[in-house]
Automatic annotation (TrEMBL), chain A:
CDD domains: ABC_Org_Solvent_Resistant (cd03261). Residues 254-336 are annotated as: Disordered. Residues 284-301 have a biased composition (Basic and acidic residues). One of its GO terms (molecular function) is ATP hydrolysis activity. Residues 327-336 have a biased composition (Gly residues). This is ABC transporter ATP-binding protein. It comes from Micromonospora globbae. PANTHER family: INTERMEMBRANE PHOSPHOLIPID TRANSPORT SYSTEM ATP-BINDING PROTEIN MLAF, PROTEIN TRIGALACTOSYLDIACYLGLYCEROL 3, CHLOROPLASTIC. The keyword ATP-binding applies. SUPFAM superfamilies: P-loop containing nucleoside triphosphate hydrolases. Residues 270-279 have a biased composition (Pro residues). Keywords: ATP-binding, Nucleotide-binding, Transport.
From TrEMBL, chain B:
Pfam families: MlaE. InterPro entries: Permease_MalE. It comes from the Bacteria. This is ABC transporter permease. One of its GO terms (molecular function) is phospholipid transporter activity.
Length: 336, 256
């Protein structure tokens, strides 16, 4: 079972330049959360702060009653064993083969025999579909394979919290769909707490249970997927629907003049697109953290945009024919 | 002003890094495998350059002294001068140059590349301290290799001087060997090795620090290597001067 991560009033700056300030959110145990934001808003910095690679200026990160920023270096190394992190390019050790990379945490931290290590490594490599590439060096395989190998290494110590730094950057749509399906299946199997940092809205719309949006140095909104997808808050709406009209400009945020001009020109926001169904696990059994589609909207009296949760009109997503593994990332309601 | 503050801050960080490494020395488990690999690697890149640099070094000393001592009629002391120059000064300096230039740059480039590929971050997240796992074995390996290299440079340098003196300048082999003890003494060799030990540690520490704080992509690694070599050179020559000055105060010299 996953672990809850509670972030309170977190603030970080580099050389006096604030990256983001006063970020408070709770990653619910066992759920998948996505952190979105325009490029350069410090999403990766947030992730690195969360594992204690960077120290925040203020605020706390509470995990199992421990406040990460106030731990000693040695205690921090202990807490980090709870984490598995997938870095952007996999961050594999270039001098070791894929097999040795995945075996590395086991060899350093456990007293397992080589035979036991082989069993665990083979299982994880099978999970990410890398059987047959064990003897290759990271330089000899493609970016997508490096990412999956990095994921296998992150999973090898059975972490309670798994962080993904842009798992979909630089991958083609098909590989992204496979990876998203893998994330869902992993969450079903391990029930760990997931945080995915990305700016791919398709991933953000279909994969997570919760969405957060960092914008202009603060957390604009964090909450259940349906809450953000049905939100009319300008920033959230603009970002989640990839529109040009709204407060986010090409460089950073638009200034007041531009916004006024935009309002004058009578540019109207297109209607909210339908909320797609959440990606189901490939074996059809529900995840523990999963909620029925439309539940949040019903409970909070929000009318979802017309056509939401389509794909079987009101029927449970389980009623659909079983998808081939990794297929359905782009399906379910037509995101854009 | 801000650059001055920057220099002070960097130095402070470097000393903190050295203390962390020192603390890492006592931590278990000792990374024997990494140590052996690194010692092998550093010796493989430094033995040949060290030997090739020290042969002309010995020869140059013989050349410089040759005509002078002949005019003074002190040919039998060429060996003494050669031992003094090579063992006391040339040995540690050549060791310093090679360790910083060949070993240090390789360490810095290796760690720098790991840093920008986020390998070091990944290692920390996996609960492994890169200082304990990577830096400590490199510092120890560099110290060991420097000590051995200093021995090699002394032997090759004196042999080079001997060959040059005997074969080309017509010196007497017996006189060259017999005068070894005239000016030099055993503590000279000891202090040479102590210097080499310090140089090895300093070069590896600077290279590791620079590598692990590299930033800004591949160009950042290039800059880090460049800075590491320059800083190490300056540091090693300063260190050499200090140790020599202390040595002359502490150990009585022959003929004084």
């Amino acid at each position: 079972m996953g672990v809850e991560v509670a972030v309170r009033g977190l603030t970080k700056s580099f050389n006096g330049q604030p990256v983001w300030s006063d970020v408070s959110l709770t990653l619910p145990a066992g759920e998948i959360s996505v952190l979105l934001g325009p490029s350069g808003t410090g999403k990766s910095v947030f992730l690195k702060t969360l594992v204690g690679l960077l120290r925040p200026d203020r605020g706390s990160i509470l995990i199992e009653g421990l406040d990460l920023p106030r731990l000693s270096e040695r205690a921090l190394y202990e807490v980090r064993k709870l984490f598995g992190v997938l870095f952007q390019d996999g961050a594999l050790f270039g001098s070791m083969t894929i097999y040795d990379n995945v075996a590395f945490p086991l060899r350093e931290h456990t007293r397992k025999t080589e035979a036991e290590i082989r069993a665990v490594v083979t299982e994880k490599l099978d999970m990410v579909g890398l059987i047959g590439a064990e003897r290759k060096l990271p330089g000899e395989i493609s970016g997508g394979m490096r990412k999956r190998a990095g994921l296998a290494r992150a999973l090898v110590l059975d972490p309670q919290i798994i962080l993904f730094d842009e798992p979909d950057s630089g991958l083609d749509p098909v590989r992204t769909a496979y990876l998203n399906q893998l994330i869902i299946d992993l969450n079903q199997r391990t029930e760990a707490t997931f945080l995915i940092v990305t700016h791919d809205i398709n991933t953000a719309r279909t994969v997570p249970d919760n969405i957060g949006l960092i914008y202009h140095g603060h957390l604009a909104m964090f909450g259940p997927r349906e809450m953000l997808l049905s939100s009319t808050e300008p920033v959230v709406r603009q970002f989640l629907n990839a529109q040009r009209i709204g407060p986010i400009g090409m460089a950073e945020e638009k200034d007041a003049e531009e916004l006024a001009a935009e309002a004058q020109s009578g540019a109207e926001l297109p209607p909210l697109p339908p909320i797609p169904l959440q990606l189901p696990p490939s074996d059809g059994r529900p995840r523990r953290a999963e909620r029925p589609p439309g539940q949040w909207c019903r409970e909070h009296g929000v009318t979802p945009p017309p056509g939401s949760f389509a794909d079987g009109a009101g029927a449970s997503p389980r009623a659909r024919e079983p998808e081939p593994a990794g297929g359905p990332a782009g399906t379910g309601g037509g995101a854009r | 002003m801000s650059t001055a503050v920057d220099v002070v801050r960097r130095s402070g960080e470097f000393f903190a890094f050295c203390l962390d490494t020192l603390r890492g020395l006592g931590r278990r488990p000792v990374q024997v495998r990494e140590f052996v690999q690194q010692a092998w690697f550093i010796s493989s890149v430094s033995i040949l350059p060290a030997a090739l640099v020290s042969i002309p070094f010995g020869a140059v000393i013989a050349l410089q002294l040759g005509s002078l001592v002949r005019q003074l009629g002190a040919q039998s002391f060429t060996g003494a001068a050669s031992v003094l120059a090579v063992v006391r000064e040339a040995g540690p300096i050549v060791t310093a140059l090679v360790i910083a230039g060949a070993g240090g740059s390789a360490i810095c480039a290796d760690l720098g590349a790991r840093k920008i590929r986020e390998e070091l971050d990944a290692m920390q997240v996996l609960g492994i301290d890169p200082i304990h796992r990577l830096v400590v074995p490199r510092v120890l390996a560099s110290m060991l290799v420097a000590v051995l290299l200093n021995g090699l440079v002394s032997v090759v340098g004196v042999s080079g001087g001997y060959a040059f003196n005997v074969l080309l300048q017509g010196g007497t082999p017996g006189a060259y060997l017999a005068s070894f003890q005239a000016l030099g003494q055993l503590p000279d060799l000891v202090v040479g090795e102590v210097k080499a030990l310090l140089f090895g540690a300093a070069a590896a520490l600077v290279a590791s620090y620079k590598g692990m704080t590299a930033k800004g992509g591949p160009k950042g690694v290039g800059d880090a290597v460049n800075q590491s070599v320059v800083i190490t050179f300056m540091l090693l020559f300063a260190l050499n001067f200090l140790v020599t000055a202390v040595y002359f105060q502490v150990v009585p010299q022959k003929g004084s």
